[in-house]
Amino acid sequence: MLSRINKIFILAVVAIANCLTASAQDPQLSQFYAAPIYTNPAFVGSTKKIRFTASGRNQYSSLNNNFLTSVAAIDAYIRPLHGGIGVMALADRAGDGQLTSISFNGVYSYNLNINREWAVNTAIQGSYIQRGYDFNRLIFPDMIDDIRGAVLSTNEPNRNETKSFMNFGTGIMAYNANFYGGVAVHNLLEPNQSFFNPNGDAAELRLPRRYTVHAGISIDLVKSRNEANRVFLSPNVLFMQQRNFYQMNLGFYLKRQNITVGGWFRQTSRNTDALIFLLGLRLPSFRLGYSYDFTVSDARTATGGSHELSIGFEIKTKVRNNMNRFGKPIKCPEF
Fold first, then answer.
1. pTM for the whole thing?
2. Which of 21, 22, 108, 261 is the most exposed place for a label (fewest CB within 10 A)?
3. Cα separation, 327 vs 323, whole angstroms
């Protein structure tokens, strides 16, 4: 029994050590368009309104020390700048606070009409990121007493518990009345994120680039001059890759009046991961969305599903939507 307990503690230490030294991945969200700036910085200024968004994700809710992610952003279209500006903050916690990440991001997006039908947005994003861990929460093999458990002091040295660095990202998006698609690249600098080897240049010490490709179309199932009677179907695809890990998301949104429902299938590089179900409420200036990831991989019995909640506010401005030079508002899902 005691040897089994020792093995459990040792495995836990190894898992945490891997988190602190190996290549990490950016947090993921299931409501991609509820946090548009996180998906692609080219979404900044795309609504031609002042927009506030916030999302919270509880991933693998059956675990005691699971992943918790929060994202909040505000962006607006600024006509003299021919585009939009936005700011975004992200907080991510893993292992009950054993590993945390906080980032602050600023974005400028240039919006341009190509012709009467097509518009293009391009964007640049700058980020300040701080990662940290709590050394006092770690359990090392020399702390384990065969009878009393992890009660002894450790001889392991306490390394730097925080790591800060700058980062950059970019994105581009093209759209018309019925189609939207874009490409984003995050972590352009691939900065060193290691706590133990801050001056190293090995690939496993760096935060790898994240590539995102997304696209969708809007189809009028029921056409009407009365907005309340119209029904929209929006098939979508989103592909994301970060070093050796990738995920493919295929799904749709169905909108009628103030209600949006959606369903997604997510396939990762290692397994079929999850089915995602979405329910959203859209009022004139406010929206609320909830999604649930039903895990379908072999890990479902241990990890459980994932919950995600999003809110958004929009404030109209005096910018004209029919400007020929400075871009038009995008028509895409809000969740």
1. 0.86
2. 22
3. 7
